[in-house]
Please model this.
Amino acid sequence: MKIESMVLNEARNVTLTAYIQSVGGEFGGITRRPAVLIIPGGGYHFCSDREAEPVALPYLKAGYQAFILRYSLNEQAVWPNPLNDYEQAMERIRGEAETWHVVPDRIAVVGFSAGGHLAACAATMAAERPNAAILGYPVIDGACAHDYLTSAPDVPSAVDARTCPCFVFATRTDNLVPVENALHMVDALCRHDIAFESHIYSNGPHGLSTGDPCINSGRFCGRYPSWVEDSIDWLRDVLGGLNAGGLTEPRFGSRINGNREAALNLDCSMQFLMEHPEGRKVLDEVLGEGWKNACPAAARHVITLRDSLAYMGIPSETASDLEARLNAIPNT
Model:
């Protein structure tokens, strides 16, 4: 493994540390690797070492290249300096993708507490957005963020259709960042059809990092450390992973349905198609009036047309005709 440390902004003491694993040779068909950019917490006053290298290790073991960003702090942290630090780090990683054997469209950001706020801002506001975000006991709400950095923005209001898939975890008894922060993030993701996974563990204080005993001696539920392996497996769902032959395809992809695709399609939700004049017209013409009652009203925002057609027993020829006609309609 090669370790490189570089200064991104000398005046603000911003650094990026890269942990680069080899490819090929003993690693078989692996020629490039996905990557994680880790952003430690610390209330925008320091960068926690417990949320830096100890976090990088399990992702390295899973085959990722790992990077740690130590960003602007204290009086240097006036917004948008921290977000600019992230932008510079991500531009550097993607710009050096060939040298560092990184897949540029398989880079996840991993942030904790205030670093989770910065990671969430990267997922919702950045020009160089990550491809996935893992948010640990994150500061999310503007009111909470202002306790640590008065210029910090609110995150839920910035969630949009371009927000990447998110893995959000926290504890119900977090004694510094109320669990509502994580819940509000999940609610915003749900409202915008963004893929996510969430774990709210029953007990544990703030700042548990990986939950390893050598890092934190606090009392917390025994399930908490599972977030590490769960997040790695979740990344296989939305980005794909690695095996000896190289990169693997995502199990499910980064979207929960087809509502955000360039054209209408069978994977759009029923509710979405019902509210789209041209899409609704096509369904009326092909399926008649009965299609509207094919599923309970409460499920229409979740169930896709493809699943509804299967439930109704619609012939494959009709489904193919629908798909062709819908694909001809731009999704504006």
Remarks:
- The radius of gyration is 22 Å.
- The first strand starts at residue 2 and ends at 9.
